[in-house]
Amino acid sequence: MDLNNNEISVLFPQAKNDFVETNYIKEIIERAIDYIEAGFPVHFKGHSGMGKTTLAFHTAWRIGRPVVFISGNEALDTSGLVGGMYGYNKKYLRDNYTSRVLKIEESVTPKWLDDHLTIACERGYTVIYDEFNRSRPETNNVLLSILQEKILPVSQAREKAGYIQVHPDFTAIFTSNPEEYAGVYRTQDALSDRMVDIELETFDYDTEVAITHLKSDLDLADCQEIVRLVRAVRRAKAEKTTPTIRACIIAAKVIKLKTDTNLTENRDLTIKRICRDIILSDVPREEREKVRNVIEKI
């Protein structure tokens, strides 16, 4: 997506030329749009490599409003979402109207700066909160009143009322990895209850082939072979969600590069080695022998 920034880091997503929209993807996007139009935030939930952030931006493009992007992390606190006192306004007056009288006045007042969530709530932008469960639950508590009562409480130091009425066009799109991932927190029930989860599973075969082909420009037949191999490896593993579509894309791009540089001698062996290197990196050691056998057969 083409993203343009203005003075407050607002993004204007555009449709990507390489966005693959198969029937499988269309169905997910349409469900998300339906929930958003009904007034509910959407939560794309799934393992790494499922395309959660890409789907979030495409959904935001369909909504047609400016986007504020927030990346969840351990260090993020409530002021990092809403805003706070950052710096001071300093006023200095030197009055020497007559030569014998010198008058000096100096005053310092704290300065409030709005942050991304406040700006989005006030102006009706779309918020994409990526990997929101990497932020601490107490940081995300501010979202509860926003999503339910449509009110954002703010400090009186903001020199306005102690709250902001959320703009009717405000929309929130969340993404997260499963809660058993390292570095993530369990989502509080009160927040989970205010959003609609869309569980992202492995793409269907046609979608994976289309994405791999478009992202790599490798011959379609070769892309189909790579996807079949990756899907066979998934079935052979205890963890059925990996390797993801990223493994297909990486393998296809490397093979395309080798093909463009006249890969002729030992072509099958070279491709097999490429796939083995890329796929085995995501396989537990105790399952590697089984996966090697799958690669050898295919």
Task: Give a topology summary.
Elements: H1 23-37, E1 42-45, H2 52-63, E2 67-71, H3 78-82, E3 83-98, E4 101-114, H4 116-123, E5 126-130, H5 137-140, H6 142-148, E6 151-153, E7 163-165, E8 171-176, H7 189-192, E9 196-199, H8 205-216, H9 220-236, H10 245-260, H11 267-280, H12 288-297
Helix pairs in contact: 8-9, 8-10, 9-10, 9-12, 10-11, 11-12
Model description:
- The protein is α/β, with parallel strands linked by helices.
- It has three domains: 23-81 and 115-199, P-loop containing nucleotide triphosphate hydrolases (Rossmann fold), CATH 3.40.50; 83-112, no CATH class; 205-297.
- Helices cover 42% and strands 20% of the residues.
- It has twelve helices and nine strands.
- Strands 2-5-8-1-9 form a five-stranded parallel beta sheet, with helices on both faces.
- Helix 8 (205-216) crosses helix 9 (220-236) and helix 9 (220-236) runs antiparallel to helix 10.
- The longest helix has 17 residues, at 220-236.
- The protein is elongated, with a radius of gyration of 26 Å.
- 31% of the residues are buried.
Order of helices and strands: HEHEHEEHEHHEEEHEHHHHH
Count every beta strand, where a strand is a DSSP E run of 2 or more residues. Answer: 9
The figure for the number of domains is 3
State Rg. 26 Å
Reported for the largest beta sheet, the result is: 5 strands, parallel
Q: Strand order across the biggest sheet?
A: 2-5-8-1-9
N/C terminus separation: 36 Å
Summarize the model shown.
With 298 residues, the protein is α/β, with parallel strands linked by helices.
